[in-house]
């Protein structure tokens, strides 16, 4: 059967099958479009202009000579061209990605530049002068602390040191008679920092106490200047700075080894996020600014810095920023609606009660909403960046896909991501509230009663609002990415680069970031 190939105005997507190598045998040169036995080529080729001069081809030009017989495995229909030289206009879709067109860059910049300017203005207007001072209450974290060392531990009878009259055990499992008959520990502790450096005091450790002290252990002691001199210091915690520092070092090493330069940038972005949190968000809330406004401005600044620092200033990153921004706005709206309708005060434990007592002007429900927004930001970044990259890679693999096809393919990837991320978020909140859930289980409370209590209802609202934002970020970001890459129209220079020598080598050129 004889077949003549006609040039197609829109060549189909090339496939990586036999004969796709640019060095494959059997390219017929200088032959007329005669009827000859041919097979369907693995790559559709668009013939170049007949009168075109020398052009980039997939193999070196052959010297003029007799026309070789067409290879049945790879033959093309070519229009006759004058002269001994014949060029092929190959239309391969592989190779380095062309940069996003200047017009599309202007559209993205028109959206993001005003947003970034608004964030900078918000930072300037809300920037605090530091956390306002207050008088120490000596309660919880609001007390003076110093570093100390346990220098000596000796065993003594609990009855001899009168341990039964006070200092109840942290576990509370033993009766008074059992503690009196047991063996306690008498620890001598030396203060290592502060104006009383070198001062020592003793503390009795009961046998059923959760935290047991041993010689040489580093501890944290609380100082109460208004107490009697021999009771001014007491052990409140263990000094964990060394193991925490080692763990942070292992984490940083793992990130750098695996992520290389991208990992280094991620660590820098993490440090900047902590700086924004400690020097802007927390002091601004304590100074009396609206917690929701502070959280939106601070989270937006963290988002812009982290995404562009880790992934580079590209159109792909900008689409991820837009998707994250839309999802944060949705979380803020839903949070305001349901926190208000559920009558959640945000004052549910000793710590929030202490904050409200020290700074009555702080809106505790607004503080709760601010925590929801900031807590959801990290997972949102992950989802939006992943979805944007997936759509971009789909487009580079098959540039002929329209925005609907890109959206459908990207959303299939996003559904898998949704299932894992939502489950992760719910389990993270459940793990944090596990002791609370155990208390309700011990009390044999019904599921409805447990969910209705403000402690649990606060976590339910926090979890569900964050999960809704995550779920919404997948279609929103996928649609934005599909719209951007399908609407892109690179200029002639970009198209020439995409079909240049790197493309002719089958896509082994270095990929450009878009």
Structure, briefly:
InterPro entries: YibE_F (IPR012507). This protein is an alpha+beta fold and 514 residues long. Helix content is 50%, strand content 8%.
Question: How would you characterize the overall build of this protein?
Answer:
With 514 residues, the protein is an alpha+beta fold. Helices cover 50% and strands 8% of the residues. It has 13 helices and 5 strands. The chain has a 5-stranded antiparallel β-sheet with strand order 3-2-1-4-5. α5 (315-341) runs antiparallel to α11 (454-487) and α7 runs antiparallel to α8. The protein is elongated, with a radius of gyration of 34 Å. The two termini are 46 Å apart. Mean pLDDT is 74; it is low at 1-98, 163-175 and 491-514.
Give the topology.
Layout lengths: L101 H25 L17 E14 L18 H6 L1 E9 L8 E6 L12 E6 L9 E6 L2 H46 L4 H21 L3 H27 L8 H9 L5 H34 L5 H30 L1 H9 L4 H6 L1 H34 L4 H7 L2 H4 L10
Antiparallel strand pairs: 1-2, 1-4, 2-3, 4-5
Helix pairs in contact: 1-4, 3-4, 4-5, 4-7, 5-7, 5-11, 7-8, 7-11, 8-11
Number of beta-strand segments: 5
The helix-strand sequence is HEHEEEEHHHHHHHHHHH
Strand order of the largest sheet: 3-2-1-4-5
Average residue pLDDT: 74
Percent strand: 5-15%
Key features of this structure:
alpha+beta; single chain
């Amino acid at each position: 059967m004889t077949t003549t190939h006609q040039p197609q105005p829109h060549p189909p997507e090339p496939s990586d099958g036999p004969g796709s190598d640019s060095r494959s045998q059997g390219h017929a040169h200088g032959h007329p479009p005669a009827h000859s036995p041919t097979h369907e080529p693995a790559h559709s080729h668009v013939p170049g202009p007949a009168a075109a001069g020398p052009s980039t081809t997939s193999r070196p030009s052959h010297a003029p000579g007799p026309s070789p017989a067409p290879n049945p495995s790879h033959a093309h229909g070519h229009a006759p061209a004058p002269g001994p030289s014949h060029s092929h206009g190959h239309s391969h879709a592989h190779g380095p990605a062309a940069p996003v067109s200047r017009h599309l860059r202007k559209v993205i910049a028109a959206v993001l530049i005003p947003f970034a300017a608004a964030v900078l203005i918000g930072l300037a207007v809300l920037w605090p002068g530091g956390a306002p001072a207050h008088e120490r209450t000596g309660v919880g974290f609001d007390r003076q602390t110093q570093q100390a060392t346990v220098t000596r531990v000796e065993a003594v009878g609990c009855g001899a040191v009168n341990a039964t009259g006070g200092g109840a055990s942290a576990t509370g499992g033993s009766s008074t008679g059992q503690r009196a008959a047991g063996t306690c520990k008498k620890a001598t502790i030396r203060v290592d920092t502060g104006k009383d450096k070198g001062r020592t005091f003793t503390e009795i450790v009961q046998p059923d106490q959760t935290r047991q002290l041993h010689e040489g252990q580093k501890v944290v002691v609380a100082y109460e200047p208004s107490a009697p001199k021999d009771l001014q210091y007491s052990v409140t915690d263990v000094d964990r700075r060394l193991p925490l520092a080692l763990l942070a070092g292992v984490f940083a090493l793992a990130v750098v080894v695996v992520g290389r330069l991208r990992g280094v940038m991620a660590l820098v972005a993490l440090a900047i996020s902590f700086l924004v949190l400690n020097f802007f968000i927390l002091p601004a809330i304590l100074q009396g600014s609206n917690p929701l406004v502070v959280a939106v401005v601070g989270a937006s600044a963290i988002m812009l810095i982290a995404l562009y620092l880790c992934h580079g200033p590209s159109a792909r990153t900008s689409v991820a920023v837009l998707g994250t921004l839309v999802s944060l706005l949705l979380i803020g709206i839903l949070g305001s609606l349901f926190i208000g309708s559920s009558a959640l005060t945000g004052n549910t434990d000793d710590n929030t009660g202490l904050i409200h007592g020290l700074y009555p002007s702080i809106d505790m429900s607004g503080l709760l909403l601010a925590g929801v927004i900031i807590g959801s930001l990290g997972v949102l970044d992950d989802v939006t960046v992943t979805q944007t990259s997936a759509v971009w890679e789909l487009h580079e693999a098959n540039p002929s896909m329209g925005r609907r096809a890109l959206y459908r393919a990207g959303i299939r990837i996003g559904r898998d991501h949704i299932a894992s991320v939502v489950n992760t978020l719910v389990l993270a909140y459940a793990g944090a509230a596990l002791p609370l859930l155990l208390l309700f289980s011990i009390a044999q409370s019904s599921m409805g009663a447990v969910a209705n209590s403000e402690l649990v209802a606060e976590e339910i609202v926090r979890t569900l609002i964050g999960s809704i934002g995550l779920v919404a970020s997948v279609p929103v970001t996928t649609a934005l990415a599909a719209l951007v890459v399908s609407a892109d129209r690179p200029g002639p220079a970009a198209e020439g680069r995409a079909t240049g020598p790197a493309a002719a080598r089958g896509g082994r050129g270095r990929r450009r970031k878009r």
